[in-house]
Amino acid sequence: MIRYGIQDYQPQWLDGRNTIAAAHARRLAGLVGLTLQHVWLVWDLDDDEWFTDAPVLLDFGAEQVEIDHQKFDDLSITWNTINPSRAIEDPYFHLAWRPDPTPELVNLPGHTLRHVELLEWIGGDRDLADGSLAVGFDLDPAWLTVFNALDENGFEHQKPGQHYLRYRIDQ
């Protein structure tokens, strides 16, 4: 299955902090000290907006981490599988990869990654998102969190607040 016409992309859906940490903590920690080159997003060319259902690519030059959310708690982290220079061939949407296409992302390239955190949402009573995981990137003085926006990806650009349990990933 090709997700949204993105060639060679096969998401690996996981849930739960321990499961995701076991699968990806070592490699996420290995990004520390690398400089962010670009944040690639899939752009809906018809609506001229971010297509939030597709993965977010963080290009650190030597490594590219691909983050994707679906449902309430599924998170896929893949590595170096997507080539953003390749055309997206989706039969329903007119999509293309764009580097740093929003004002919030344009100043992130060039920042060095200080650390990575897995962030567990604890919104409160009867919050459907409770337990969902986000990935936070400390690019001091900037910050980027890629979170589950209830069956799609979302961004936050400030350090995580009290609605997250924070788990720093160390080497």
Condensed summary:
8% of the residues lie in helices and 37% in strands.
The oligomeric state is single chain
List the secondary-structure elements in sequence, H or E. EHEEEEEEEEEEE
Kindly estimate the percentage of residues that lie in beta strands according to DSSP: 35-45%
Characterize the main sheet: 7 strands, antiparallel
Query: Whole-number radius of gyration?
Result: 15 Å
Query: Helical proportion?
Result: under 10%
Given helix and strand content, the structural type is mainly beta
* Total DSSP E strands: 12
| N/C terminus separation | 34 Å
Average per-residue pLDDT, rounded, comes to 93
Gross geometry = globular
Summed up, the helix count is: 1
Q: How would you describe what is shown here?
A:
The chain contains 1 helix and 12 strands. The model has no long low-confidence stretch (mean pLDDT 93). The longest helix is centred in the N-terminal third of the chain and has 13 residues, at 17-29. The protein is mainly beta and 171 residues long.
